[in-house]
Please model this.
Amino acid sequence: MSEQKQEGTYSHVDEPVVQFKVNSDRIIREVINADTKQVLVHISGYDLQINFNMQYLKSIEDVEAACSGISQLFRDIIMEKLLEGNKPAE
Model:
């Protein structure tokens, strides 16, 4: 299984534990190439939440700006993974 890292710094917090059903509680979203039918992006997780700040998404331009930001976020993540895979062995 691939390594996952936690974003940000968190101190120990006494918090409740949440349990999920392995299959039925797992959310999956995929981007599939229309021509080849191959999965290009697979996003999955438990309690996967995508929140939009609708107070500021009032126009087509606002939505396009948000989509552009999401695109850049994923571009950065993909490029980081690509560069990690191309590092020479030490």
The first strand starts at residue 26 and ends at 32.
